[in-house]
Specification:
The structure holds two protein chains of two kinds.
Chain A: H1 2-30, H2 32-40, H3 44-56, H4 67-71, H5 77-92, H6 98-107, H7 111-116, H8 121-150, H9 160-186, H10 194-208, H11 220-226, H12 231-234, H13 236-243, H14 249-277
Helix pairs in contact in A: 1-8, 2-8, 3-5, 5-13, 6-9, 9-10, 9-13, 9-14
Chain B: H1 4-32, H2 37-61, H3 72-106, H4 109-114, H5 119-125, H6 133-149, H7 156-182, H8 193-201, H9 213-222, H10 225-236, H11 242-268
Helix pairs in contact in B: 2-3, 3-6, 3-7, 3-10, 7-10, 7-11
Classes of the chains: A mainly alpha, B mainly alpha.
Chain lengths: ~280, ~280
């Protein structure tokens, strides 16, 4: 009897998920031009690749045999290019913008009907993000293709195991990003300017995630400190996985799961406290 | 040759714009003072961004390498100018030009066009967010301090050249923003073009010679990042050649004229949101 009930609930959940996803996907298709622009605005890793690849070139006067070590960053030209390309991909599919969507919904009073529905409203945003990632896919493939056309030597085929691990790592990275942002978004219940906090959160993310510099160039103490934050797992770890660089796989996955199991209860507790405080805007 | 009557008319015209500007900014300041928490957030954000950029420079220079042949102090001049321009963006450009999109979406642009004042002037100067000012001051201080440590000697020519180059870079930055904001007349939903611009301009944190040849050309010819930070830095360091100075002024004038022409072109195609 109970098992039958569970089966029915799972079936119901599946139907809700499918309906949510397909409606959000249809919505996102309307905004394809915007999505393309968002994809373009993530080109920072390529700019940083330009900087670091100039540094990887051994300074004049040293014989080329010194190679990467003369450049002193422990990565050669090819590894650098692959790393930053993968960092770009990891960033593209782990972006979260729930703060902005939530703030707009809360300020315009759209949140009230969502709260009445028998569905945790955060799921709606999860579906929107996943749908947006699907619409992003063609643009990311296009940008990567242009990159390979310009630098054919960089082309490589990751092993199937690494690909599966990367997909999983990027999903976990997205989950961490989404939960971190949701915590800030829920602060909208208390303050109208929660999105300003998101700007502050972005700064350590930018410099510690591996988006502007591969973590290998950090001094060991700083690198160790960075690994006590969730940020290196959000870009650097999936990027290194995909680029085929040596990386502690099990430990990194464990750390990601750890962060998620810390952030998830906090998000839910904040949510419950926030909804209790909520008095609708414009109502 | 202007007749005396026309000069007087031009003077009262300019005076009118000046008075309007003072009104605009006075009321903007008064309303922004309601949100003083923003000052704290902006200062913390600036400190964080500067600390991150310094960390990155330290990673590079700490291992005895140089960005495109620039010493650390010289690279700091570039970073200072970048910070200054970022401050200008958050003080003037983002609050004003970001609003153009909303005006188009909600149809309130019609009211602006009906006002007896130049519409580009109104849209570009209507409001001001004082919270970018700490960034402007810090950026300027960093640029000047680093230039002095790099051994620049502040002569009259250097100061004038540096000021002129900073002015051109602000004008170029403004024109880029304005042209992108103008495109919203045709494609209503493109406010995040400015995000693309911001991402591309972040290349301006580093001297242009730190990039490989292809990107260097791109950032000089297609997207004038070189004129935004590198050329002013060279001028402040007192080593800019006169033809780069002239070129920079020419680019600034051309960019401003283009933004004006582009705005007129857009208005010709403008059909109000409600009709």
């Amino acid at each position: 009897m109970r098992i039958w009930n569970l089966g029915r609930r799972l079936h119901h959940g599946g139907r809700v998920a499918r309906a949510l996803f397909s409606s959000q996907y249809a919505l996102m298709l309307e905004y394809r031009a915007e999505t393309a622009l968002w994809a373009l605005s993530g080109l920072l890793p390529f700019i940083m690749l330009g900087i670091w690849s100039q540094l990887a070139v051994p300074p004049a006067g040293l014989e080329p045999g010194h190679g990467a070590e003369a450049g002193g960053i422990g990565l050669d030209q090819l590894q650098l290019s692959r790393y930053f390309l993968c960092a770009f991909v990891a960033r593209q599919f782990s972006v979260a913008w729930v703060v902005y969507a939530f703030e707009e919904d809360a300020l315009q009073g759209r949140l009230s009907p969502y709260l009445l529905q028998p569905l945790q409203p955060l799921w709606r945003y999860v579906a929107a993000h996943l749908a947006e990632q699907v619409t992003r896919l063609p643009f990311v493939v296009l940008i990567a293709a242009v990159f390979f056309l310009l630098q054919p030597a960089v082309l490589w085929i990751p092993s199937p195991g690494r690909i599966v691990a990367t997909v999983l790592a990027i999903w976990l990275a997205f989950t961490i990003n989404f939960l971190l942002q949701s915590c800030i978004a829920i602060l909208c219940f208390w303050s109208e300017r929660a999105s300003a906090l998101e700007r502050l959160l972005f700064i350590p993310y930018l410099f510690l995630s591996g988006l502007v510099a591969p973590l290998e160039v950090f001094p060991p103490a700083l690198r160790a400190a960075a690994h006590w934050t969730p940020f290196p797992y959000m870009v650097a770890f999936p990027a290194q996985l995909l680029a085929g660089q040596p990386v502690p796989i099990a430990a990194s996955f464990a750390a990601m799961v750890g962060w998620i199991s810390l952030l998830l209860p906090i998000t839910l507790l904040l949510w419950r406290a926030g909804v209790r405080r909520y008095s609708a805007m414009g109502a | 040759m202007a007749t005396p009557g026309r000069t007087a008319a031009a003077r009262t015209g300019l005076l009118r714009y000046w008075r309007t500007l003072k009104r605009f900014w006075g009321s903007a300041l008064a309303s922004q003072m309601e949100y003083q928490v923003n000052l704290l957030i902006e200062v913390v954000a600036m400190a964080g961004n500067l600390a991150g950029s310094l960390l990155l420079l330290w990673l590079i220079y700490g291992r005895g390498q140089q960005l495109g042949g620039w010493s650390l102090e010289e690279a700091l001049v570039v970073l200072g100018i970048y910070t200054l321009l970022d401050g200008v963006s958050s003080t003037l450009l983002r609050p004003n030009l970001g609003a153009i999109v909303t005006q188009v979406q909600q149809g309130t642009l019609d009211f602006v066009l009906l006002k007896p004042i130049d519409s580009q002037f109104w849209l570009s100067t209507r409001t001001l967010s004082p919270w970018g000012l700490p960034e402007i001051v810090t950026g300027l201080a960093l640029a000047i301090g680093a230039a002095l440590r790099a051994g620049a000697r502040p002569g009259v020519a250097t100061i004038l050249g540096g000021a002129l180059m900073l002015l051109s870079s602000v004008v170029i930055l403004y024109s880029l923003w304005f042209v992108l904001a103008t495109t919203s007349i045709w494609f209503v939903k493109t406010w995040n073009v400015t995000e693309v611009l911001r991402a591309a301009l972040s290349a301006g944190r580093y001297p242009i010679s730190a990039f490989p040849a292809g990107l260097r050309t791109l950032f000089t010819v297609v997207l004038p990042v070189a004129f935004l930070t590198t050329v002013p830095a060279e001028a402040i360091l007192g080593r800019a050649s006169s033809h780069w100075l002239l070129l920079s002024v020419a680019v600034a004038v051309a960019a401003l004229l283009f933004s004006r022409w582009f705005w007129r072109l857009a208005l010709r195609d403008y059909t109000s949101a409600s009709s």
